[in-house]
Amino acid sequence: MKRVVIVRHAKSVPYGYEDDFNRDLTDRGKNDANLVSKELIKKEINPEILISSPAKRALKTARIFADTLGFERSQIKELKEIYDSLTTSEFLELIHSLPDEAETVFFFGHNPGFHFFVNNLLKISLNDMPTCATVGIDFSVNTWKKAEARTGDLAFRITPKMLK
What we know:
Elements: E1 2-8, H1 27-42, E2 49-52, H2 56-69, E3 77-78, H3 80-84, H4 88-96, E4 104-109, H5 113-121, E5 134-139, E6 153-158
Parallel strand pairs: 1-4, 2-3, 2-4
Antiparallel strand pairs: 1-5, 5-6
Helix pairs in contact: 1-2
């Protein structure tokens, strides 16, 4: 089994759109990222690879998760393509390129793309992807190259609101 965990960045400042790339997390966003990542520990979910948009709010969310989950920050891979937006087909190509030794891979990024990816990878549809929503998608395959759209099973969905 292979698991993709898709994390929308935590709550960010509601201003600074003229420099969207550098928008920061709010205090609530930082707290939410801590809360959700601690829930992952309870569920014994551990990443082998973390891939993030290099935008400040996504990368900071990834770093909070990394710290909580005991993942080395310097090992977070930044992919500008996640910020620039990918099609579902391009996102699947990224998944297909993952090393098969890894079983659980986290992606940190943005809506609307991440909401589309979740709904296009799962067999079912999810209504929304609020900030810091974290969705685990399981593929019953032994190699990443066999992961396909609309074949993933929902392993879990965590939102900050569920934990408050």
